[in-house]
């Protein structure tokens, strides 16, 4: 069975790019959300295995959405994807239950590597930032 992924980003371009990367790699993209409210509703409706989640959304912060989804679905793996790579935000995301944090711009190889790792491990944290300690 294909792993089911929900993409959350306010940028149509970024959602499309991620969808194409993930679909081409054999993943089943079950939905795309442009804001936090859609993300929470779609996560509940589609029950994905993994969610890619932007930090900055028009109606909410990705960190609040992360916490809300984790309360309802503690088993879902969430990978944060954002141009905001400040250590304090990365650490808060990982402490709040994200399994990884990818800083934009990112390569297709990096996204697929982190998504694959997140789906296999689920609880191990990884980040794009080389000097940030991984938490597990």
TrEMBL record:
Identify the residues that the record assigns to the Response regulatory domain, covering every copy. 4-119
Task: Name the UniProt key words of this record, in alphabetical order.
Answer: Phosphoprotein, Two-component regulatory system
Name the Pfam families on file: Response_reg
Instruction: Quote the protein name from its UniProt record.
Output: Response regulator
Classification of source organism: Bacteria, Pseudomonadati, Bacteroidota, Cytophagia, Cytophagales
Give the SUPFAM superfamilies listed for this entry.
CheY-like
Q: Does the keyword Phosphoprotein apply?
A: yes
Q: Does the keyword Membrane apply?
A: no
Positions of modified residues (4-aspartylphosphate): 54
Q: Which InterPro entries match?
A: Bact_response_regulator, CheY-like_superfamily, Sig_transdc_resp-reg_receiver
GO biological process per UniProt: phosphorelay signal transduction system
């Amino acid at each position: 069975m294909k792993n089911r992924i929900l993409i959350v980003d306010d940028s149509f371009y970024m959602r499309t790019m991620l969808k194409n990367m993930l679909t081409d790699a054999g993943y089943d993209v079950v939905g795309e959300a442009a804001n936090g409210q859609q993300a929470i509703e779609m996560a509940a409706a589609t029950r994905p295995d993994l969610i890619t989640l932007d930090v900055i959304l028009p109606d909410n912060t990705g960190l609040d959405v992360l916490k809300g989804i984790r309360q309802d679905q503690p088993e879902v793996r969430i990978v944060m994807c954002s141009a905001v790579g400040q250590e304090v935000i990365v650490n808060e995301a990982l402490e709040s239950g994200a399994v990884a944090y990818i800083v934009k711009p990112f390569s297709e190889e990096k996204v697929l590597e982190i998504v694959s790792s997140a789906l296999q491990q689920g609880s191990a944290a990884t980040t794009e930032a080389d000097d940030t300690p991984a938490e597990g």
